[in-house]
Amino acid sequence: MIELRKLVKHVGLILLALVMLYPVLWMVVSSLRPDNEIFRRPGLILDGLQVQNYGTGWTALVSPFGHYLLNSAILVLACIIGNLASCSMAAYAFARLDFTGKRLWFAIMLGTIMLPIHVIIVPQYIMFSQLDWVNTFLPLVVPKFLATDAFFVFLMVQFIRGLPRELDEAARIDGCGHARIFLRIILPLMLPALATTVIFTFIWTWNDFFSQLIYLTDPEMYTVPVALRSFVDATVSTSWGSMFAMSVVSLAPVFLAFLVGQRYLIRGIATTGGK
Amino acid sequence: MSAIGELQRMRKGSRGPLGGGRRDNKAAFVFLAPWFAGLLFITAGPIAASFVLGFTDYNLIQPPTFNGLDNFARMLTDARLHKALGVTLIYVVVSVPLQLGAALGLALLLDKGLRGLAFYRSAFYLPSLLGSSVAVAVLWRQIFGADGLINQLLGIEGRGWISDPDTALWTLIILNVWTFGAPMVIFLAGLRQIPRMYYEAAATDGAGKWTQFRSITIPLLSPIVFFNLVLQIIHAFQSFTQAFVVSGGTGGPSDSTLFYTLYLYQRGFGNFDMGYASALAWLLLVIIAGITAVNFWAAKFWVVYDD
């Protein structure tokens, strides 16, 4: 009886997983089919591989799609570096140093995790447009160097609190200052938290549409999400095949990051709650 | 331990891991310098600035002029704003409970030492990584289109779920429920923290599965439910990409997918009506803060803290 119940449970879960993933699988399969089949073939079985959509999609916009992939890659890399540097510094201070008003600052930091970007986007845009930063990556990258992704600060604070304080004490007795304790002891030990930060920053920046839509209006500067969106507007229902093909291309890096970094993703959202 | 749990503990005044020891103001200032700059220029500063701009008329070209309470008076008669508030509220009120219900249900199913847990968890989690992308919004547009996947599977002809104002919002609600994987992972982690011995002790005392669930699982999981609820509500209020892509930036048909953030975008960045957009941003902040405050207040009645 118990075995049977387990079997039923597994069958149910597998069916549900299939339903959940079906749309994405179907998009991948459809991108490998001739355009007109997308509207009459709901199944997943391929007659043959037809990669023509990828060729058409790749060159459908002003620049080849590789240009937008490169833009996104540059942006993501810069954001990762910014988050790693600035959030780890802030986290060290919150986890290991004692200073005036610490509880208040810490509460403010936690509060900003929940702050919607839409509330600050208007004055931010005015500021960045006066600095002449619109249509550069600066409005998207500079905030990351200023530890504004408080989620990661919190993640790292949690992690540093779990490291034994004896290590710092020993280093201090040996004459190390905070800079050296941070660089030589804490940073190497918090690699798992840094890895989580890398993967989440990668995925969130790669997917982020709102701020990239606002700050990048010159087609030369388009990143993948903005380019994909302009593709939709340009080709409404004429060529779903090539649109699906480029959608698959744009999701592939996220999927790869998920495969490589699953462990860190799951642990990251399990310990801090995630988005 | 979540950010929200941390805030609640601080509110109660327990010192916890903070405080004590000798002061290190100089070093702290150096380490926090980027964060302070970010607070000043990127987060707190702009919040204050948008409060002031909310009382002005500003189109980015001419300097802002104060117009008193005009923007707020305009809100009272702005029919599209009222529509946007309604659409967003329905979206939040319907999709968040469904999403969290699915997340909790699946987490409970997966918790009991099931084989293949890692596989299922990944399969259910993946959509929450993809859900906010433009690519999935593009896909949704096809799936729920007149000759899309849903109609092909169900054998319906020519019914456009996205082009019909009565159903367009529901396709976005389905999209949000589809991303239940992230809260599910949080529930799973929470379930794992409940000590096994509680269940063993209850079983020894003759408590059945249902009693165990009601008097152990539910109360001990309530802080996690609360955390997910607060976070997903805030998150849902900010949905933008899906509605933008699915409606081609209009919020249509007939404003049926006009999310608040989409309306704010149209006013601010479509019409460069920055004064009114700032006032709208403040209203959003007040609404979200208000709902979160109510949530925290209501937590007294149903969230159990064992510390």
TrEMBL record, chain A:
It holds the Pfam family BPD_transp_1. Its main location: membrane. This is ABC transporter permease subunit. PANTHER family: ABC TRANSPORTER PERMEASE PROTEIN MG189-RELATED-RELATED, ABC TRANSPORTER PERMEASE PROTEIN YESQ-RELATED. The keyword Transmembrane helix applies. InterPro entries: MetI-like, MetI-like_sf. The chain crosses the membrane at residues 7-29, 68-92, 104-126, 138-160, 181-206, 240-260. One of its GO terms (cellular component) is plasma membrane. The keyword Cell membrane applies. One of its GO terms (biological process) is transmembrane transport. It comes from the Bacteria. Belongs to the binding-protein-dependent transport system permease family. It comes from Nonomuraea phyllanthi. The lineage of its organism: Bacteria, Bacillati, Actinomycetota, Actinomycetes, Streptosporangiales. It is found in: Cell membrane.
